[in-house]
Amino acid sequence: MPDPIHRVTDEVVKCRRCPRLVAWREQTAREAPARFRNERYWARPVPGFGDPKARLLVVGLAPAAHGGNRTGRAFTGDRSGEWLYRALYRAGFANQPESVSKDDGLRLIGAYIAAVVRCAPPANKPTPEERDTCIGYLEREMELLRDLCAVVALGSFAWDGFLRAAATLGHKPSRKPRFGHGARAKVGPWTLLGSYHPSQQNTFTGVLTEAMLDGIFAEARAMTEVG
Length: 227
What we know:
Layout: H1 4-14, H2 19-30, E1 49-50, E2 56-60, H3 68-71, H4 79-90, E3 111-115, H5 128-144, E4 150-154, H6 156-168, E5 184-187, E6 190-195, H7 200-203, H8 210-225
Parallel strand pairs: 2-3, 2-4, 4-6
Antiparallel strand pairs: 1-3, 5-6
């Protein structure tokens, strides 16, 4: 019998429930920029990725049009992923500091990466309906990853998405914690950490530095090693 987390993966990659997102991810593949024009795009929903024994969950917004939507793996083949995987490597959560393709040998150690929405959305902005249609996959992963104790939310959308998923699973804080870089909240059995998203908008402007991102994952590492 396959591992249950693999069954979720199988369902994710076959999903066509959001017509706007299906049309956009496929259009993006057909109209690829010149540097990717000879590549065959994944152009399907991007499943979660990582260690089924993970103690850390990293939650993003959605795949990038020419990153995960092209390569088929979360945060792979784009600038955001370059920052994220370097930080995960430095914190001991990855066996190498780069992620360029699904077959590049990358392995996560005690960590799992997922997103609130699994298809690349136009302008990186899914609708509330698309979020609510897709978030069930995150909820199921949270249930199946039974060793989880820490969660890093990359951006406010991921922060709010995780809180929605946790509430559905019966873990709703009495007062909604506010997102911020370095924000920390106890949510049921998990400790939620907030980080600015490693988007070019944030990294090029200095809103997020590598030292800031390293600080978040150092904190996550300390939490996952307790007990």
